[in-house]
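Task card 7
Instruction: Convert sequence to structure tokens.
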Amino acid sequence: MASMWRWYQALMTRHPWTIQIVTAGSLVGAGDIISQQLIERRGLARHNVQRTAKMMSIGFFFVGPVIGSWYRVLDRLVAGGGKSAAMKKMLVDQLCFAPCFLGAFLSLSGALNGLTVEENVGKLKRDYTDALISNYYLWPPVQIANFYFVPLQHRLAVVQIVAVVWNSYLTWKANKM
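Output:
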């Protein structure tokens, strides 16, 4: 396990952007697999591979690039690495970024699932508030620790590891019709 971590670290040093995006897509996919198998209890025979592929594509092309870029912007907006800076970063992240990101994620998932604009708006009205409240139970303490203890280049990976659980919930919420 330690050698895998060293290998990952070496790749992050050489290709940080690519590795962050691949990590995000893979972990969003893992969250969908967990969602389908443990939450929805579909079983392998009824596993929706196309849905997992769609969720992974959201991870590769939306989650990874957007969150990776956001952390760079946030580090410029709120300078420093102390406790005060970590708290400010968490507040900006959770009050400004998270509500927009969550709405975009749910909308994009709906669009990829073939929902019409009206159906997507209805789904957002039904699911957004519950998902945002759930977000606020999980992410503030994770983000304070992330911003205080974790170097910038590893923040997306830390968030995505925690996000396997979050993604399981979110992919269930996004695909619940």
